[in-house]
Amino acid sequence: MGLTDPDPEHPVCPLCGRPIPPGAPQSRHHLIPKLRGGKGGETVLLHQVCHSTIHKTLSETELARQFNSVEALRGHPDLARFFAWVARRPPGWKGKVR
Known about the structure:
Keywords: Endonuclease, Hydrolase, Nuclease. By secondary structure, this protein is an alpha+beta fold. It has helices at residues 48-57, 60-65, 70-75, 77-86; strands at residues 26-30, 43-47.
């Protein structure tokens, strides 16, 4: 399943393209971090492993200045490799962030 053909029953992670089934670890990511002016701003629903990887890879300042959109996050070389890899895992896969 790709980003262009969403499952009407489950939201789709905009980063890895996998459905987010009920019960799967998930969280909302503030595109602009709350501590950098994003409180009350736009959020996106992600798999928890995708969200955790973002915060392990980028600082709050980098997120606010350069990586404050889904497109920018998907364009980061290290994150893009991770999202391509995790896209091949089952939708409810939890994984561990290194």
